[in-house]
Amino acid sequence: MGKLEGKIALVTGGNSGIGLATAKQFVAEGAYVYITGRRQVELDAAVEAIGKNVTAVQSDVSNLADLDRLFATIKQEQGHLDIIFANAGGGQIAPLGAITEEHFDKTFNVNVKGLLFTVQKALPLLPEGASIILNASITSIKGTPAFSVYSATKAAVRSFARNWILDLRERKIRVNAISPGVVPT
After folding, report:
1. In terms of CATH, what superfamily is 8-178?
2. Active site members
3. Which SS3 state, helix, strand or coil, does residue 40 take?
4. N or C, which terminus of the chain has less Cβ within 10 Å?
């Protein structure tokens, strides 16, 4: 019996990279996993790679209607969520002086707005003792040339974790942020 036997998990951005590896491990540990991503072809490939106990829901975390549809699906099919890995995100290199409003908005919409509303909209499905894992980045602590906007979004993620621990402690919901370095995907 695995550590996550009988648990229901959500991995946003579960169609590739850290998200896909996490979804595979959660299933190997006994969880039933929902994965999200924007591209259906990649989601279909991820479902095939995971093999069992997985449902893919095409969605963009920065689109609140997509999040509503995602959580309605999970509620209807499972009734609750035990684990959220808010992993969806990304960033592009843009040095100070070359940052555009479009670059800023796109990065903050996915990495900050999307993460915030993923967690907030999931709250009604989380029982006491649930776990929320936020994917931050080492760049939130250590500067990286031409990556200031991305780094700022990941600093916001770390700040969310610190505050949500306090907001959710009476419900005994754990909140952790991980801060990986560069991951070749």
Report:
1. NAD(P)-binding Rossmann-like Domain (3.40.50.720)
2. 150
3. helix
4. N
| Sheet bearing 174-178, strands edge to edge | 54-58, 32-37, 8-11, 83-86, 131-135, 174-178
Locus of tokens 């995907």: 185
Contact predicate 23/4, CB 8 Å: no
* Rounded distance between C-alpha atoms, residue 175 and residue 124, angstroms: 16
Q: Taking Cα atoms as reference points, which of 47, 50, 15 lies closest to residue 29?
A: 50
pLDDT in tens, 107-152: 999 999 999 999 999 999 999 999 999 999 998 889 899 999 999 9
Global model pTM greater than 0.85: yes
Whole-angstrom distance, CA of residue 22 vs CA of residue 25 = 5
